[in-house]
Design goal:
The structure holds 2 protein chains of 2 kinds.
Chain A lengths: L25 E6 L5 H9 L3 E5 L6 E9 L2 E7 L11 H11 L3 E9 L3 H13 L4 E6 L1 H6 L6 H8 L2 E4 L11 H7 L11 H13 L7 H9 L3 H7 L5 H16 L5 H20 L10 H9 L5 H48 L3 H8 L4 H30 L1 H15 L7 H7 L3 H7 L6 H14 L3 H11 L4 H25 L8 E3 L8 H18 L1 H16 L2 H16 L6 H8 L3 H13 L5 H13 L4 H11 L1 H29 L4
Helix pairs in contact in A: 3-11, 7-8, 7-10, 13-15, 13-20, 15-22, 15-23, 17-18, 18-28, 19-21, 19-28, 19-29, 20-26, 20-27, 21-27, 24-25, 25-26, 26-27, 27-29, 28-29
Chain B lengths: L3 H16 L4 H8 L4 H10 L3 E4 L2 E4 L1 H24 L4 H14 L2 H10 L16 H5 L8 E3 L8 E7 L4 H9 L7 E6 L4 E5 L2 E5 L1 H5 L1 E5 L3
Antiparallel strand pairs in B: 1-2, 3-8, 4-5, 4-8, 5-6, 6-7
Helix pairs in contact in B: 1-2, 1-3, 1-4, 4-5, 4-6
The chains are: A alpha/beta, B alpha+beta.
Chain lengths: 667, 217
């Protein structure tokens, strides 16, 4: 997820080495975001590619094999990064891969138009003393925008081979591998000044030999990278780590500014000094379609219709095509006509025990409910959603959406970046809860997790709810939308007051708008579907099993009797709706589906439909999401959230019912 | 108070106060010259400080005087460091001399000219003057927050006011750094700036902390 900036978790590195089964030499592609790394990667690896999530994260990593002169190399495409001092989970993954060992060479891809950021990273990569070549990409754009670079001079300053390319036109890519295999570590050196150099030496003497230079590690430690200290515990004694800490603290006392600022300042000066020697012209502005669209998407006026257009597109593709056409096909044809009858037949023939038969193909059966549900209803919806989300991500639109929303989210103690998990929540709240890691502070993560659990309907639930709204007049649908948005906003505002902690800064890069490459979209979507199958389907099975047990022990019917007064008296819904809400405990969308069934059978008035969709939208999160909240935020917060959400959803539903009655509104 | 030595010692005591409770010995060491006791006596006579045992205390009058000196000194540092780009080794010495000759009016003009900076190049606070409170704008500021630029305007970054340290590292890696040229693209719904080939969207308050000097087209 290149555009989704992820916050660093301090527990990590140790258990997160890339799966490394063979001892093939590894070459890594490193570069700033949006410089064309993936295109170079695709060209070099041709078809031997696998995409998977980096262990324990939602960051996708592509790996492939490259053959050159009879030798095979492993090529890894790392997430875009600006610095080896990570600010995000993406950047941390890149740093981990470089430090993780087995790297025999680095290919840095840089944007020839943006040498400053390219070289700022180059300096840090060279400090690791891993063999490196610098590939300057988009040379054509650089030339047309008036950037002239003295490459020979740059090569001699950095002492690395430089390759020029126009990756999208496949120009200059064949010379990369020959240069990489020839590359050696260089002596390029930045002097950080007496005090820091002394500290570097002291720390170097405390470190054992690593696969990257001790100097690079020392600089990371001086810059205050705590995640690294954690990782060093594998090799160093507690005393040595404490000693490193003392050296750093002592150094820090001599400066008025944080040490990472002091170090980055030296690096920036160095980059500017190099630029003065090799770059001869200021950048001219070029007006392109991409630029025009990019500016339009964040325009205070035009940005809004564009946003609405994007939402409408999502509705058409996910809502109409995914949740309608595809689900119909999978549910009614594939499962309804083929799998379910076949499974029932086979089970009836082979299994003599009624209980086991029920467990497999009964009302709450593994095959007839859990798998049918997971594969026939949810999978087509999340697959179309993931596909669309990947397009939005690669097109460069999402950061612009964040920029559009920043002011509104400020009121809720969040910043614009919080829109990203919220949008993802419209696909799958469970995945979105995991993605709250991109937010920088604990406060933001807690608030967004709560909002997701409370009022962001996932695509499955949304599909069913939208189908129910089809019987309502438009004004009633509008009431539903306003109540949900109002509740989200109000709860966000109040929890921002309640949850303490510093607020975070909103600094986000707006990459150029571009047409996504189909192969990228395809691999990303595939990786996300794989994640979904591995992580979420097992939870469906677990949830269904719990329902099955409750049903067999007749606990369901006991709860039903206890809960019905709330449903009938307070919400004004028919007795039968109780079942739907009970199931809603396990899956909000199961619940929604139950209500939809009642509505189709003509058992709900329009008012009742409205009350029930408001209540079920706000109802407690599904069991998969609940487990994810426990994993990410802890059991205590998960329970507190549930204890708030359940009565709150009923309260809002009941108040709506009362107001409709008092005002005599009939839809 | 024309005595430069008095000004000098007052500033040293002030700076010692900023760090921790000052001890007489430490101040003497920092002062460096052997006329320390003589100058200290002068301060006591002028009722600027009181000394009890090893402890030194400002009087109300002394506090005001110290504040003015430190303000002049740090504004001078800002002027030399940011606008004239004089290296640190030289500007500290220059500022030492400058602190004695700036009149209150000139001090306020310099302050306005620099856009009422809140910290010195070492990130220590600059005491506010009358001009900062009343926003006197007789002198047109040369250095001003990014937010005051008009759309499409280009400017050179002069300094960034640090609120939190994390912000700097993030800004640095995008090239938002003193000396680099920036262009303001949009103010609403978010601030959007262009720097090098990079486009960034930022919070208003971060932009208020980036001080720039306008460039002619």
């Amino acid at each position: 997820m290149e555009l989704i900036r992820q916050k660093i978790e301090s527990r990590s590195l140790t258990s997160r080495k890339m799966p490394d089964t063979e001892a093939t030499p590894t070459i890594v592609l490193v570069g700033n975001p949006n410089v064309g790394k993936s295109v170079v990667f695709g060209y070099l690896t041709k078809k031997y590619v696998t995409v998977s999530n980096y262990p324990g994260t939602t960051v996708e990593i592509a790996q492939g094999k490259v053959h050159y002169k009879g030798k095979t190399y492993r090529l890894i495409d790392t997430p875009g990064t600006n610095s080896l001092l990570p600010n995000s989970e993406d950047e941390k993954v890149t740093r981990d891969i470089i430090l993780g060992g087995h790297v025999s060479a680095i290919i840095q891809i840089g944007d020839a138009k943006n040498l400053f950021r390219t070289l700022y990273l180059t300096i840090q990569l060279l400090e690791t003393r891993l063999p490196l070549i610098l590939n300057l990409n988009m040379m054509d754009e650089a030339r047309s925008s008036g950037v002239e670079v003295d490459l020979d001079r740059l090569e001699s300053i950095l002492q690395v081979a430089i390759n020029q390319s126009v990756a999208i036109r496949k120009q200059g890519l064949d010379t990369i591998l020959p240069k990489v295999v020839m590359s050696t570590p260089t002596d390029f050196f930045v002097n950080y000044g007496g005090l820091i150099e002394d500290a570097i030496q002291k720390i170097e003497s405390l470190l054992p030999a690593f696969h990257v230079s001790k100097r690079a590690l020392a600089l990371m430690l001086i810059s205050g990278d705590e995640t690294l200290l954690e990782w060093l515990k594998q090799w160093l004694s507690v005393e040595t780590i404490a000693e490193i800490g003392r050296v750093v603290t002592e150094l820090a006392q001599k400066y008025d500014e944080p040490l990472d600022v002091v170090i980055s300042r030296v690096r920036i000066r160095k980059v500017n000094e190099i630029l003065r020697q090799v770059q001869h012209q200021e950048v001219k502005e070029v007006n392109t379609v991409s630029r025009f669209l990019g500016d339009l998407a964040i325009h205070p006026v035009w940005g809004v219709p564009i946003l609405l257009l994007v939402l409408y597109g999502m509705y058409q593709i996910v809502g109409v095509f995914g949740a309608g056409t595809m689900v119909d096909f999978f549910e009614n044809v594939i499962f309804g006509e083929w799998i379910n009858p076949a499974a029932r037949y086979v089970v009836d023939q082979l299994v003599p025990f009624a209980l086991v038969r029920d467990f497999l193909v009964g009302e709450y059966g593994m095959i007839t409910m859990a798998l049918a549900y997971g594969f026939a209803i949810i999978l087509p919806i999340v697959a179309t959603f993931f596909f669309l989300f990947s397009i939005l991500e690669d097109s460069g639109y999402l950061p612009r959406l964040a920029a559009m929303m920043n002011r509104i989210f400020r009121v809720m103690g969040l910043n614009g970046k919080a829109i990203l998990p919220m949008v993802l929540g419209l696909g799958c709240d469970t995945m979105a809860t995991l993605t709250t890691r991109i937010l920088e502070t604990r406060k933001e993560r807690v608030i967004v997790t709560l909002l997701l659990a409370l009022g962001v309907p996932c695509s499955a639930q949304l599909g069913v709810i939208l189908a129910m709204t089809s019987v309502l007049p438009f004004s009633a649908t509008l009431i539903w939308i306003s109540i949900i948005l109002g509740v989200l906003f109000m709860v966000g505002y109040l929890s921002a007051k309640l949850v303490g902690g510093p607020k975070s800064d909103f600094i986000i890069e707006l990459p150029p708008i571009r047409l996504p490459a189909f192969s990228n979209i395809f691999y990303k979507t595939l990786a996300r579907i794989e994640w979904y199958l591995k992580e979420v389907i097992p939870l469906f099975i677990l949830g269904t099993a719990i329902l099955f047990v409750l049903d067999k022990l007749h606990i369901l019917s006991i709860i039903r009797v206890a809960a019905s007064p709330v449903i009938v008296k307070w919400l004004g819904l028919p007795m039968e709706a109780t079942d739907a809400f009970l199931i809603g405990f396990l899956r909000r969308d199961y619940g929604a589906a139950g209500l939809f069934q009642l509505s189709r059978e003509g058992m709900l008035t329009s008012n009742q439909v409205l009350v029930s969709i408001v209540t079920i939208t706000l109802f407690i999160p599904c069991i998969a999401n609940f487990l994810m909240i426990i994993k990410e935020r802890g059991l205590k917060i998960a329970l507190q959230m549930t204890a708030f959400i359940l009565p709150f959803a009923l309260l809002v539903g009941g108040l709506l019912n009362m107001s409709l009655n008092l005002l005599g509104v009939k839809f | 108070m024309s005595d430069r030595r008095v000004d000098h010692l007052l500033r040293i005591i002030w700076m010692a106060y900023e760090k921790e409770a000052p001890e007489l010995k430490a101040i003497e060491k920092e002062y460096g010259n052997d006329d320390f006791s003589e100058v200290l006596q002068l301060l006591i006579q002028e009722k600027l400080v009181t000394v009890k045992g090893d402890e030194i205390q400002f009087t109300a009058q002394g506090k005001r005087a110290g504040e003015e000196i430190i303000r002049r000194y740090r504004l001078a540092e800002r002027l030399f460091a940011d606008l004239l780009e004089i290296p640190q080794s030289d500007y500290e010495w220059l500022a030492c001399n400058f602190e004695h000759i700036l009149s209150p009016e000139v001090t306020d003009s310099v302050c306005t000219f620099l856009g009422h900076p809140r910290v010195c190049p070492h990130n220590r606070p600059i005491p506010q003057g009358k001009c900062c409170v009343s926003f006197v704008n007789d002198v047109k500021p040369l250095v001003q927050p990014l937010t005051t630029l008009s759309l499409g305007q280009k400017a050179r970054i002069v300094y960034i006011f640090p609120v939190h340290k994390k912000r700097w590292g993030q800004l640095h890696q995008f090239g938002v750094f003193p000396g680099n040229t920036i262009k303001l693209i949009q103010k609403r719904p978010s601030y959007v700036i262009e720097i090098g080939g990079t486009t960034l969207a930022l919070d208003d308050e971060i932009c208020r902390d980036i001080y720039v000097k306008k460039l002619m087209d």
